[in-house]
Write a structure and sequence with these properties.
40% of the residues lie in helices and 8% in strands. The chain is of the alpha+beta class. The two termini are 17 Å apart. InterPro entries: NT_sf, PolA_pol_head_dom, PolyA_RNA-bd, tRNA_ntf/polyA_polymerase_I.
Length: 484
């Protein structure tokens, strides 16, 4: 895999990192006082034919841990500094085409949340009053309907994919929780349609809609308040939400890690209690969620939260075993080599600038090899350089020997340095390359995963999930290990 120059620069010299800065949270304006709706929630009108899973939300619209109705907010996007240039051309093209056909269109979900926080969204999702067939017809030849439980339309625009969902789509297999049966006298038909869709969302901070033409943000769940409080809160009660879709556990951790948010007590309790349920997910889905955690600039925080809530052993058993063997504490800074490696990687990545999945997979195998057999710092640096230089060992040796920075002596994976003859250094690097390849192979083998799990004190004894990282073996480290 071709790597841009910065991406492996930090592998050559592992130094103690500086103090990590806290995740910035954009200052949010205080909400205007609004009269609370006398009857908290609407009921569907006879013309509404579909009712998605919903549940009561708390006072002020702050989620599922209370039982009063929401304080609906329609906020001007100008309060948060929204600008037209913040939305990419591909999303604008889809919005304009659908609107020109008479359909209502909104940006929805995480992109609205990120724009409020002045962060760069990973993608821009759209929801429309058109049904998915009408969306597909609007973009004839460049759109395809995907998904089984909750179908959406992928619209291909300028080598990008814009996801478009429909207000008319209901999640298949939802729990069918009842919605309120009293209609607020302040509820318009459009309000009801928007509100009903938001009730099917996972977290309140993802239940925001933005009309870029009227420049209004619609907040039916108290998402803006939860952004201000830095909380990841489920829309319906957390236990129900995670049992309905256990992938929400991984999304909750991913969002909290990326934004530096925390969980309310109820949410935190069920993330930990139901952590083992993620093993039931399709392995492809797990890999997708792992990639979102590790390839988009928040890998270190994700690994910390996965360990804290007992999820790591179900996703990466070898790394969980390493944490257990080192008696890692979640607040430790700079002493865990695996976290330092991913922290260095995070510095070069962002939600709109991720790395290829083969890089973080290689990094896991790289560290696992070091954890098994600590190496001289010069061997590690020379291997990293040879990997980066496409296998040019002679140049890697020359550059490696010119490094005069002191390695971090707190890492047990690094031995005391010594003087190496070129031939012996090459032999050691090639041995380490073989060890790294073996580590990757064993990380995907059920027998060796079971052995790793035995090192974790509270590891589950059955229904173990072992990663299918092996499907990426041919795209991860072989070229880097063919060192000559």
């Amino acid at each position: 895999m071709a790597l841009r120059p910065p991406e492996l620069r930090w592998l050559g010299s592992l130094t103690r990192p500086g103090r990590l800065a806290p995740s910035p949270l954009a200052a949010l304006a205080s909400p205007r006082r609004r009269r609370r709706a006398p009857s908290p929630s609407p009921s569907p009108s006879p013309s509404d034919s579909s009712t998605p899973s919903t549940a009561p939300v708390s006072a002020g619209g702050t989620g599922a841990e209370g039982f009063e109705g929401p304080e609906w907010k329609k906020v001007s996007a100008k309060r948060f500094g929204f600008k037209e240039s913040m939305i990419p051309a591909e999303a604008w093209n889809v919005l304009h085409r659908l609107r020109s056909r008479g359909y209502d269109v909104y940006l929805v979900g995480g992109c609205v949340r990120d724009l409020i926080m002045k962060k760069t969204p990973k993608d821009f999702d759209i929801i429309t009053t058109a049904d998915l067939r009408q969306v597909k017809d609007t973009f004839s030849g460049s759109a395809v309907i995907v998904g089984r439980r909750f179908p959406i339309c992928h619209v291909h625009e300028n080598n990008s994919i814009v996801e478009v969902s429909s207000f008319n789509t209901c999640a298949r297999g939802s729990s069918g929780s009842p919605i309120y049966n009293s209609k607020s006298q302040n509820c318009s038909k459009n309000d009801f349609v928007r509100w009903r869709n938001c009730q099917g969302r996972d977290f309140t901070i993802n239940g925001l809609m933005f009309n870029p033409y009227s420049e209004k943000i619609y907040d039916y769940l108290g998402g803006i308040d939860d952004i201000k409080k830095a909380k990841v809160r489920t829309v319906i009660p957390a236990g129900t939400s995670f049992q309905e879709d256990c992938a929400r556990i991984l999304r909750a951790i991913r969002i909290a890690a990326r934004l530096g948010f925390s969980f309310p007590k109820e949410t935190a309790y069920y993330v930990r209690t139901l952590a083992c349920s993620v093993a039931r997910l399709d392995k492809g889905r797990i890999l997708m969620e792992m990639n979102y955690m590790l390839a988009y600039g928040s890998a270190e925080a994700s690994l910390r939260l996965l360990w804290r809530f007992g999820v790591l052993e179900h996703l990466l058993p070898f790394q969980a075993a390493y944490f257990a063997s080192t008696r890692f504490k979640r607040k430790d800074k700079g002493t865990n080599m695996l976290l330092v490696l991913f922290s260095k990687l995070d510095n070069f990545l962002a939600p709109n600038r991720p790395c290829h999945n083969s890089l973080w997979i290689s990094l896991l195998a790289f560290h696992e090899a070091l954890a098994r057999q600590p190496c001289d710092p010069l061997v590690v640096a020379t291997f990293a350089l040879a990997f980066y230089l496409g296998g040019d060992m002679s140049l890697a040796v020359d550059i490696g020997k010119s490094i005069n920075r002191q390695h971090d002596t707190s890492f047990r994976e690094l031995l005391e340095p010594k003087v190496w003859a070129d031939k012996h250094l090459v032999d050691e690097v090639q041995s380490f390359a073989a060890l790294m390849k073996r580590a990757l192979t064993e990380m995907t083998d059920e027998y060796f995963v079971a052995k790793a799990m035995a090192k974790i004190p509270q590891a589950p004894s059955s229904d173990l999930f072992y990663p299918t990282l092996g499907i990426y073996t041919t795209t991860s480290i072989p070229e880097g290990c063919q060192i000559h």
